[in-house]
Design brief:
single chain, alpha+beta, L,D-transpeptidase catalytic domain-like, four-stranded mixed beta sheet, globular, peptidoglycan synthesis, cell wall biogenesis/degradation, signal, PGBDSf, L,D-transpeptidase family protein
């Protein structure tokens, strides 16, 4: 009798264990129906790409989904698009008309309309001028530095230089410009320079190049002077070592030039080349 009761209990326990395994094995987090437990929305979208639009082969329609009530769209009132801006992308400076006038007189920088209004063509021409003469920033804006440089160049009278029959370097201290002549003709047009500041004024007079050095060392100021051409003691032509258009400073008597102008003058000059310096730098 005890054996029968023990066997019955053993059979009952086995049934309970088997039923428990069957209910939870495939759905440890489900409701007991055997359906898969719902996944977090973010995980489902990331793993399955559910956020992507359905393809024709796989329409995203759930059999149990309820039809949505879509409101009838109302006609939208389309706002007219504004006309394309005519902005040149180039700011207008306070010296617009004057710069247009001077650049038109100089020529070589493009077609400008002298009307005091910035245009795409004006912007291009002014930028080209600024890049040529080392004006920073070269933004196309007709500001005071651009105005000053353009005025000096446009008002330079090359005939004032008492050039000889050979090559002559001409320095206008008043306008702070330099050019070169050969046989009475201009072979290097006027360009910008910076001469001696107050207390170190570059002296006017007629000289000649006494020595040349591609890279001269300045003992008193401990700096290299590229494309050096000496014409008066320790005074000579050389490439500038600082921003040329900083009007608050000047040289210690030398004639400072932009790189391309220093190179060109170096190519034109030789020992004995005539140098004519005239006028006077304002403030010296």
């Amino acid at each position: 009798m005890k054996r029968v009761r023990f066997a019955a209990r053993a059979i009952g326990l086995a049934v309970v264990v088997l039923v428990g395994v069957g209910a939870c094995a495939h759905d440890p987090q489900g409701d007991g129906s055997g359906a898969a437990a719902p996944q977090p929305v973010g995980v489902t979208e990331e793993a399955s790409g559910a956020s992507a639009p359905p393809t024709p082969e796989q329409p995203a329609v759930s059999p149990t989904a309820q039809p949505s009530r879509t409101a009838t769209p109302k006609p939208s009132r389309t706002t007219p698009k504004p006309a394309p801006s005519r902005s040149t992308g180039c700011p207008q400076g306070e010296q617009q008309r004057a710069v247009e006038t001077y650049l038109s007189r100089l020529g070589g920088f493009g077609t400008l309309t002298v009307d005091g209004k910035q245009s795409a063509a004006d912007c291009t021409a002014i930028k080209k001028f600024q890049l040529r003469y080392g004006i920073s920033p070269a933004s196309g804006r007709a500001g005071p530095t651009t105005y000053d440089v353009a005025k000096r160049l446009a008002s330079t009278d090359t005939a004032r230089c008492r050039a000889g029959s050979g090559t002559t370097f001409c320095v206008d201290l008043t306008r702070q410009t330099v050019w070169a002549m050969r046989g009475g003709k201009v072979v290097m047009g006027p360009t910008v320079t910076r001469t001696g500041m107050s207390g170190y004024a570059t002296p006017s007079g007629t000289y000649s190049v006494g020595g040349k050095n591609m890279r001269e060392w300045s003992n008193p100021y401990e700096v290299w002077l590229p494309y050096w051409q000496r014409f008066n003691g320790g005074i000579g032509f050389h490439e500038t070592t600082t921003y040329l258009h900083n009007s608050s400073i000047g040289s210690h008597g030398c004639v400072n030039l932009l790189h391309r102008d220093a190179v060109r003058l170096w190519e034109l000059g030789s020992v004995g080349t005539r140098v004519v310096v005239f006028g006077r730098r304002p403030g010296t």
